[in-house]
Write a structure and sequence with these properties.
mainly beta; 26-stranded mixed β-sheet; 0% helix; 58% strand; globular
């Protein structure tokens, strides 16, 4: 019962405390105000899980902060139409970790914690990663990107994707839709520090560390595996940092289109 979970209100701030409890339900927990999700249990055993692929585990229409706790879904773990800040915890989506509405005004900030998914770690909006990790493991033949958004800034943290996507026939390997594998696909990406790791397991794919216009001021980008491999694919300004490409087919450390 959702209503049996501890919820505290301090002025206009709702605090949803898992307190070590585990909840499985088939509807979406909707936030339309200001909410913080925590798990005050010392063992951090609390979990929100939704096995219903038709609705996300959490729908955020306001200001949502996740301090701790485990949020999981068979499909989309968190749907965002406003502002999400993650300071800890674990978010796991069968397909998508966090999906925002398209547009610059919908924001996701990852300061700590982890986001895991089978196709997209973070999809759409403006994304800032200051720490923590985004991990995608895609065993299927489908488009797969760790972070696919309008604008992305990485100041620290770890971005990792392993994918079996396959590029064939008339499939476009562009910035908006493709069967390519990418660490990041965005209109603009800025990397200050942190690491981006991309691995392709299907020889028929095209794989990119970053696709789109990017400025690299530090950190590391590693692209490895099989197929056609690019460190970056798009207009790239490399001021500092490392780009490494290793594989068994055509390789390019920096492709500017």
């Amino acid at each position: 019962d959702l209503h049996s979970f501890p919820t505290r209100r301090s002025s206009d701030l709702a605090i949803f405390d898992l307190n070590g409890n585990q909840l499985t339900y088939t509807q979406s927990l909707v936030n339309s105000g200001t909410m913080t999700i925590v798990d005050s249990d010392p063992g951090k055993a609390g979990r929100l899980h939704n096995p219903n692929t038709a609705v996300p585990t959490i729908t955020n229409n306001g200001t949502l902060t996740i301090e701790s706790g485990y949020i999981s879904s068979a499909n989309v773990a968190l749907n965002n139409t406003s502002t999400v800040t993650i300071n800890g915890g674990r978010i796991v989506g069968g397909l998508i970790g966090i999906q925002s509405s398209s547009g610059d005004n919908y924001t996701v900030t990852l300061n700590n914690g982890s986001i895991e998914a089978g196709q997209y770690g973070i999809l759409n909006g403006t994304v800032t990663v200051n720490g923590g990790s985004v991990t995608v493991n895609n065993p299927e033949n489908r488009p797969s990107v760790a972070i696919k958004a309008n604008n992305v800034t990485i100041t620290d943290g770890s971005i990792s994707i392993t994918s079996n996507a396959f590029t064939s026939g008339s499939d476009s390997c562009g910035y908006t839709y493709s069967r390519c594998t990418s660490g990041i696909e965005a209109t603009t990406t800025t990397v200050e520090d942190g690491s981006i790791y991309v691995e392709a397991t299907n020889v028929g794919t095209t794989t990119r560390g970053i696709a789109g216009t990017s400025t690299i001021n530090g950190g590391s980008i590693t692209v490895t595996g099989v197929g056609v491999l690019y460190g970056t694919n798009g207009k790239t300004t490399l001021n500092d940092g490392n780009i490494t490409v290793t594989g068994t087919s055509e390789t390019n450390s920096n492709n500017s289109a």
